[in-house]
Amino acid sequence: LCMLCMLGFLLGVRDGKIALWKDGESAPWRIFPYPVSVLPQDTQQQLKAGIRIDSMEDLDRVLENLLS
After folding, report:
1. Residues 6+ apart with CB under 8 A from 48
2. Pick from 40, 38, 42: which is nearest to 16 by CA?
3. 3-state SS class at 14
């Protein structure tokens, strides 16, 4: 299995934007150009707490829901 397939992710907030961390990394893997402030309050709170994502499929689904 490839290492990326075995890693999980954490979706959260960095500098007011949606950010994605790979497990074990201290710096975001990617920062999306979408301000968290435009999202519903409950979604903002979930992102601030961190949303655990365990697969690429889940990552795609969560991002699609957040950014659509």
Report:
1. 12, 13, 36
2. 38
3. strand
Percent of the chain clearing pLDDT 70 (strictly above):
90
Q: What whole-number distance in Å separates Cα of residue 16 and Cα of residue 53?
A: 20
The reported pTM is: 0.81
- Other residues' Cβ atoms within 10 Å of the Cβ of residue 22: 15
pLDDT above 80 (res 6): no
Q: What sign does the dihedral 65-52-56-47 (CA atoms) show?
A: positive
Q: Could you tell me the two tokens for 52? A: 């655990």
Gap between the Cα atoms of 50 and 63, Å rounded: 13
- The three-point CA angle 48-58-42 to 5° equals 30
